[in-house]
What does this fold into?
Amino acid sequence: MAGCRIIIGQIGMNKLKVSSDTSAFEVPAVLDETGKLANDCVRQALAMMDTHGLVILTGLLSDAEADAGLGLIRQTVDDPDRNRCAFASQTDNRYQRRDFCSLPSSPPVTQFAATLCQRLEAVISPYCGRPHPLLEVTTLTSYLGSSHQYIHRDPSGVISMFAAVEDVSEQQGGTVFVPGTQLFDGAKHKHGAEATAMMELFRTRCNYTILWHNLKKLWGMRKSAEAPLASGEFFDRVFSTKWDEHQPNLTRFALGKNSQFSLRMLGPGTLWKLYRRRKALDKMFALIQTAPGKGTVILYQSDLLHAGPDNRAPQPRRFFSMSLARGFVEPKLWHDGYSPHPTLKAQPMSFGDLLDCPTHSAPSGVPDDHAEALVS
Ligand SMILES: [Fe+2]
It folds into this structure.
């Protein structure tokens, strides 16, 4: 049932209201006789992508297909030589709070990615041409005790998707989005002349609260039986000088060394604007948290404001994720912002390659033997 949660920090201004009502951004997936998203769904999905920067397609994958995706994730996560991602939070990765790693371009993984691309071709095509590269295929797992990421934008010019291969509850940390904050030419028309500045103010306000939320949580974990801190973990997450943009690291916060949120973003002018524009910010932007059911796929523009929340449940949260470029991508920026598996770097693939790749999947809701072949 839809509701909302409040993240509360230390002082009055930093209450963060997060709605779990995502119905305005959802399209129940219906497939046509060829196994692609039906025209009416495509129209709705494109309208949501344009307006809000995201769309949540419920029931896009059948249970068998989602199980196949989960099998691929398990195979990868169980591999001691897996390729860990260099983004998100490396400190969380180090202390087994998260396990973000890229999937190899094996035939089953490629077939699973191709199934998603072919089913969503009409939604992705207006953004991504056939020659545009597949940037990464990853799996995103978070565990109890992970940090709440700061609200951020991923590098622009990318369409990303998360596929829920099992039910993800809000407690497990379904992704948080700020709908309508994608960067596009019409933003000023939609949100007014100060659109970008107001988005940044909203982001700063959210991140202030997230900093305190993470600190309070870590402090509580010192005596936690469920998610005890490892030796050195508290220091690494709060005082380390090592690069990590999603920890409540006070050293890097104070030194201005965190590009997502630092003290230098809280000058007197910004604090005054946060106070003076507080009501306008509430009217313009709102946070939603997704709790996708098994088989749901979330498609979003990479520069939409979003964050991976902390997992507050004992069950791990897992997603299958992939990203496609909307244009030419300079390899250095690609490899800095995304985490292609070495096999994908060695043999790059484009959106067109995935559209042409054979799949063995059957349409959603149709019992199929073929989806199981994805993990064989
Ligand atoms: Fe992100």
